[in-house]
Amino acid sequence: MTTPSDQGLQRAKCKSHSALLHISDSDSHTEEDDGSEPESDKETEPNKAPQTQSDFSIQCPAAFTARSEDSSGQTKLRTDGDLHIHSVIECDCVVITCQFSNDGSLLAVGLYDGSIKVHSTDSGELTQTLRDSSNVLPALPVTGLRFTQSGQSHCLLLATYASGSVRCWYVWGGQCLWWLREASDDGEDEIGVQRQTLSLAISPSGKRAVTCGSDAAIYLYDLTSQQRLQICRASSSRTVMDGHRFRVFAVNFHPERETEFISGGWDNTIQFWDTRQEHAIRKIFGPHVCGEALQIDSSVNQILSGSWRKYNTLEVWDYDSCKKVYGVPEDQNGGGYIYTCHWFGKDHIIAAGGQENMLRVIDRHSLKV
What is the pLDDT of residues 338-358, one digit of tens each? Predict the structure, then answer.
């Protein structure tokens, strides 16, 4: 069995297509300390011109075993219950991450070859391809995507890459408005290679963003100036764990608290942060996060975590007390080793993992699939 440590950043490897799903249940619906800000960090400067890729590569893991395939070699998708396939979008490349726009009209798909395909969710048609065509070397994978808007209400897309770069794309124009290259303080992370940026989140106001990656640090940016404001990380203390010690795969702002966000990764902790402080303010021990599997529901102030392991994969925590509220029972049909999970409206949870190539829709009240 291939473990997350073998796969590196390939925590969400899947076949080269994305499926849009529709739940036919008529009751279901989709959602939508005082201190001054630190001085801007001048070490990471935004750029207006294309960059050159760094000279390191990521090993592509073996594909998961398909349950059944058609004559073209594609995995046949099968559904159980009131879940129906709306459409299938062929991407011709391994899909690493995908994200809906805020209004649900667009689906951005980040690919292993470093390109981003933007599709209409109504027709499934490709509306835009976002790619740095100036690169001579092969691009490294897209690892994270988040839609946002400019001051003129233009549709923007922030993207992180395994090369350690962050790019801001104007979706309709297909233009990269700015980019920056992230680097650890010494230029290298704990395993002796340049930082790989693995995910990102945008604050409720849209003015700040945080990124996480392979060096256990979380970078806070001002999206107006594109300046790095803070590096959030553990202290040097050996007796207090006030930050991460290994790779960080998930980060999310509290939807109603501009200065608060959480993060999770390989060190089996969820860390709680205040953007005005360098070190984490509290933590939860337990979840082993290996993908975008950390979500906050502000209506009940609870955290949903997904862990890459066989048991205790889906857990719900109280945000303020850090106490476990409940765990979702294991599914007899599989579904462990979670890579991603999300709250889905007020009545459902969505979770997907790599062990069975299975996505589950779970009732939040009965906890049944």
Answer: 999 999 999 999 999 876 788
